[in-house]
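Request: Have a read of the protein record below and say how the chain folds.
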Amino acid sequence: MSRTAIFILVVSLIFSIYGLANYYVIVRGLHALRLTGGIRIAYIAVFTFLAVSFIAAMFLERADIIALGKPLSWIGSFWLAAFVYFLLIVAAIDLMRLANHFIRFFPAFITSDPARAARITAISVISLVAVIVIYGFINAHVIRVRTFDINVPKEAGGRKNLNVVMASDIHLSSIINNGRIRAIVDKINSLSPDIVLLPGDILDGDLNPVVRQNLGEALRQIKAPLGVYAITGNHEYIGGVEKACKYIGDHGVKILRDSTAFIDGSFYVVGREDLSARKRKPLSELMENVDKKFPVILMDHQPFHLEEAEENGVDLQLSGHTHYGQMWPFNYITKMVYEMAYGYKVKGNTNIYVSSGVGTWGPPIRVVADPEIAQFRLTFAE
């Protein structure tokens, strides 16, 4: 089976599951509220529109139909967040109803008037989901700074210290627009970095909304005397990696694609191609041209095989990709998938940091994982 056929099959399966799950949520709400007549028809129409809006927005934005694509992108993104929590809560309620069928534990005020109890439950669920989504949206806009003081016991060409600022997973798009990227850049500049590192997913995917809003121009405003360096993430590949890299490079960011940079005669930055590439160089091959007597900083978007950095003499690895799940309970899934889904860890002589990222993918909300920029104040041997 060809790659295209597999892709179509997988996408069709995902859309089918998404459609069935939406149907389940919409029907359960309809039964709980006991709607009739015109209100019932309006309910079905509104929630069907919400369910298809995100998918429709993806196609419309790719076709550069901005008048419809952008508002549908916002509507669909919020619905995705609400849908996740509607699905989880409704499924939990149905499991309790099933359990109650065998072991009677529902109190009398529920069993005496099931219709009234269902309506109250539905209204309560809608209110709870609204609170979660609103909180997550507000939280996604409050950028935190995580600061780490790390000593690297190597000489760095006479340099005694280095202020590294990392911002992963920006996801420039219709959602992460001019207001958001300006806030991110302002926060980066407030830390007075010597160098800024962007470990992948600078773009969300489709380049059209990024170009249309001229979002790349904000990247030029990053102030770092030693430059701004980036690598590819999986989302650069989603929208076409060559176009994505050209656009990022044209806006003042140096892209390292399975390559290294020796900076200021003091330290190395090694940038790996994302795992989405059909072929990328082994880290051991990249390190052949690196003089390990100098400090080595590695950017690798997806935090797999962390032992490779330790084995190859890397002093600091910076990764992102996971968003630490972004919304509960997805943080538990990232913990199962990755050795380290978020945070700071030392393996041997290698310092590793996996960031939760500063932007959002899909729903513009963050419930369990705060948006962050990481600062590493490195000191070197005298």
